[in-house]
Write a structure and sequence with these properties.
The complex is a heterodimer. By secondary structure, chain A is α/β, with parallel strands linked by helices. Chain A has helices at 19-27, 34-44, 51-64, 76-87, 109-116, 137-149, 161-165, 169-183, 194-197, 200-212, 231-248, 263-276, 294-307; strands at 65-68, 101-104, 122-126, 154-158, 187-191, 217-219, 253-255, 289-291. Chain A has one domain (3-308): TIM Barrel, CATH 3.20.20.70. Chain A starts with 18 loop residues before the first helix and ends in a 12-residue tail after the last helix. In chain B, helix 4 runs parallel beside helix 5 (161-174) and helix 9 (271-283) packs across helix 10. Classes of the chains: A alpha/beta, B alpha/beta. At the A-B interface, helix 2, helix 3 and helix 12 of A face helix 9 of B.
Chain lengths: 319, 476
């Protein structure tokens, strides 16, 4: 990165103190050529992942799923069922790994916590007036604290896109930093809502902003706007976490969310992780899929690989 | 670690015959003096087929067949009817593209992902594009009733065997000429399958003739008196010899020769995409590309950062079985070409440039060369001046835009150039000053049938592709 030479390494933590410094830094990041980024993403999508590699990828993808339900109609019964599925995605096959986390609204956290207690499955909650983020700051922080107190160990916050698009980077930075503090020990995933940022240059800047402010993960989308995760957006974010680690030594995770429905899609993302940031990120601690229907397709393909035949959809649980 | 399991494309889709004759006057015939060559798979050194070696008598027979077809059938045929044949050929190419792609990778050594995703789509697109011109020649800007030249002698190289065939045959036929084409001696198989496609399309006999052979066959063809037009793609040395041979004759000549293109990266370039462009520029098709970006000119202030990114990216390149769908770099086309690459890279190291390759296991059999980078290269090094035609990149630095232009132009070649910057005005400023037939901005190795392609200086003359490409086959 042009803006992050070795000498700048120690100074990055100071950037958030000044609107001017932050702006200069973010606007000094190298641009992203849209055509080139989309072409690279498309090329990676043509990798052919077969047999043993496919089996490995499917199990890894299952372990990376943040099994998600974020509906007004969510009930304790619904989220308990989802949590049970997270623990044992394929009741017929004990060798099937559990998913990475369950992701719900704050009000649903206590019911999920009961089911997941003692397991290795994480409990993620959206917070900060998800999905719009259009609420006073104290309400967003209270939302976050409540979720953590109820048992969430991962918080998925939304950035203030209005402030970002208006160029008020310090405001966005401060909100992320404050939310990080409110999280305590919980991991903070920062949702950029890339569909509303529109350009890859903005995605790169927002990624750096979220990492500088202390985010543990950067996440593409809420799933509540028409354009959710795409391969090129995820590519730009992966390049950002790679360059951020090179500049600061700190590793940040990436979570594409929304619209990833098939095993084929998931494998394309894993190939992209493998060839952009390498094996260090090929782990549920550093890469997650925000998804709901993806899990059943992964299970279906997994069964196909082990048995040689496709089982009908009725053989996989709907929760 | 995420290891990709082998994902080989099946070679059973293609049926290679043990031996092939010459395609003259609509059928396969034996050569008059029975000479033959062997075409090998460069990835395994396995012999794929025996190929007829055409002699002077065979060339004469082919030119006479082409002349007859030109005078009796193809020349008088209305453009709209010629178009029907070209559209039919284009569709058959699409239908048989998997077969053609596998055969191309077997015979040439290029990765299947390139023959499948680049070569074959462009081949079909070229035939579709020029089919569209066949009945619209009066609107091409070459007068109200432009006429064909007659019989075209076409000699093509081994780096893009079928694509170069398409670049030659499609415009020639659209304009109303008939052709005798000589494919390269190491990669004749897709041209012979194309001959079968001509039969399948019921193209009138003699319109397309394919005479296989080596240099002597090519010489007999371009020197033949019955030829009205010579089109050659290949090395500058052979191009010179051809220019001498046709000088003073009525033959119209177009040459597409070597290159030593500069790929110029400014300090405000989109770095990640520039690195992709550098990789694509020099490692696409094992660097067997006349317009390859074989000289990287990088602004000194970002050189270290760009090189770090480039090395990291090069370590991801997968070298190996051309038929594996995940292979990025296939086999070097021939032992002779491998020797040439080795000679020049050894010269580079001996002259003091620093050589680097990522850790990379090469197969034991076949012809292979690891992707290679030279830093500390100056304009005086052989690797900065001579065309290597292999996966070898020479890195030079510059300080100002004017110096970039000066270095980029400081070569006898002038086929292509690349510019990487976020500043639109600089792209235009540079493009005005670069003496290269094609200038790519924030991309590289982009081809399209609608876009003319050709060189300045010793990279040749004439243009192929687009409306401009018709001129080479019309009497204007």
């Amino acid at each position: 990165m042009t803006a992050t030479t070795t000498s700048a390494r120690s100074d990055l933590s100071e950037l958030g103190r000044s609107e001017t410094a932050l702006r200069t830094f973010l606007h000094g990041l190298p641009g992203v050529d849209q055509v080139g980024a989309e072409q690279r993403a498309a090329q990676l999508g043509t990798r052919s992942i077969k047999t043993t590699a496919k089996a490995q990828a499917i199990d890894l993808a299952i372990r990376m799923v943040d099994l998600t339900t974020l509906e007004g109609a969510d009930t304790p019964g619904k989220v308990r069922a989802l949590a049970a599925k997270a623990l044992r995605p394929d009741p017929a096959d004990p060798s099937c790994p559990h998913v990475g986390a369950v992701c719900v609204y704050p009000a649903m956290v206590p019911y999920v916590a009961e089911v997941l207690r003692g397991s290795a499955v994480h409990l993620a909650s959206v917070a900060t007036a998800f999905p719009s983020g259009q609420a006073p700051m104290e309400i967003k922080l209270a939302d976050t604290r409540a979720a953590v107190e109820a048992g969430a160990d991962e918080i998925d916050m939304v950035i203030n896109r209005g402030a970002f698009l208006a160029g008020r980077y310090a405001e966005v930075y401060d909100e992320i930093a404050a939310t990080k503090q409110a999280c305590g020990d919980a991991h903070l995933k920062v949702i950029l809502e890339t569909g509303e940022l529109a350009t890859y240059d903005n995605v790169r800047r927002a990624s750096w902003l979220a990492m500088l402010a202390g985010g543990d993960f950067i996440k593409t989308s809420t799933g509540k706007v028409p354009v959710a995760a795409t391969l090129p957006v995820t590519l730009v974010m992966l390049e950002a976490v790679r360059d951020f680690r090179a500049a600061t030594g700190r590793q940040v995770g990436v979570k594409p969310a929304g619209g990833i429905k098939t095993t084929k899609d998931a494998i394309k993302y894993l190939v992209m992780v493998n060839e952009t940031v390498g094996p260090d990120w090929l782990d549920p601690d550093w890469f997650r899929f925000g998804a709901s229907s993806l899990l059943n397709d992964l299970l279906m393909q997994r069964t196909k690989l082990t048995t040689g035949v496709y089982a009908g959809p009725d053989y996989f649980t709907l929760d | 670690m995420f290891e990709y399991a082998p994902a080989p494309e099946s070679r059973s889709v293609v049926d290679i015959k043990p031996s092939y004759g010459l395609f003259i006057d609509g059928r396969f015939v034996d050569p008059a003096d029975g000479g033959s060559l062997k075409s090998v798979n460069p990835a395994s050194e396995e012999v794929l087929a025996e190929i007829a070696e055409g002699g002077a008598q065979d060339v004469d027979r082919a030119v006479r067949a082409a002349r007859k077809a030109y005078e009796k059938v193809w020349g008088p045929m209305p453009g709209r009817d010629r178009a029907k044949y070209l559209y039919r050929i284009a569709r058959i190419i699409q239908e048989r593209s998997r077969e053609l792609a596998v055969l191309e990778s077997l015979d040439n050594g290029k990765p299947i992902k390139e023959s499948r995703d680049v070569d074959l789509p462009l081949v079909a697109a070229h035939f579709f594009y020029y089919a569209g011109w066949a009945d619209k020649l009066p609107h091409a800007g070459f007068g109200v009733n432009p006429q064909p030249l007659g019989v075209a002698a076409q000699v093509i190289p081994w780096n893009f065997p079928l694509l170069m065939l398409a670049w030659k045959i499609a415009p020639a036929l659209a304009a109303g000429n008939t052709v005798v084409l000589k494919p390269a001696e190491t990669t004749p198989l897709t041209a012979l399958l194309f001959a079968e496609i001509c039969q399948q399309a019921e193209l009138p006999a003699g319109v397309v003739n394919i005479v296989t052979g080596a240099g002597e066959t090519g010489r007999a063809l371009v020197e033949h008196d019955g030829v009205d037009k010579v089109a050659f793609t290949g090395s500058t040395d052979v191009g010179r010899a051809i220019a001498r041979a046709v000088a003073g004759s009525r033959k119209k000549l177009t040459l597409e020769l070597g290159g030593k293109a500069a790929n110029i990266v400014f300090d405000d370039a989109p770095v990640d995409q520039a690195v992709e462009g550098i990789v694509n520029g020099i490692f696409f098709n094992q660097g067997h590309v006349c317009c390859a970006g074989s000289r990287l000119l990088v602004q000194e202030s970002v050189a270290e950062q760009v090189l770090d990114s480039l090395k990291r990216r090069m370590a991801q390149l997968r070298v190996g079985d051309p038929l594996d769908k995940n292979t990025d770099i296939g086999a070097i086309n021939s032992a002779a070409q491998l020797a040439r690459i080795q000679e020049l890279t050894e010269a580079g190291a001996a002259e003091g440039a620093q050589r680097w390759s990522p850790p990379c296991e090469l197969p034991e059999r076949g012809f292979w060369f690891a992707p290679t980078l030279f830093t500390g290269v100056t304009q005086a090094h052989r690797i900065a001046r001579e065309e290597i035609f292999g996966p070898v990149l020479s890195v030079l630095t510059f300080r100002t835009p004017a110096e970039a232009v000066e270095k980029a132009n400081n070569t006898p070649y002038g086929l292509s150039a690349g510019i990487w910057t976020e500043k639109g005005s600089r792209i235009l400023w540079m493009a005005d000053r670069l003496r290269a037939g094609v200038v790519w901005a924030n991309t590289f190795n982009k081809f399209d049938p609608t876009s003319p392609f050709g060189g300045y200086k010793e990279s040749g003359y004439g243009r192929e592709g687009g409306r401009h490409g018709l001129e080479a086959y019309l009497n204007v």
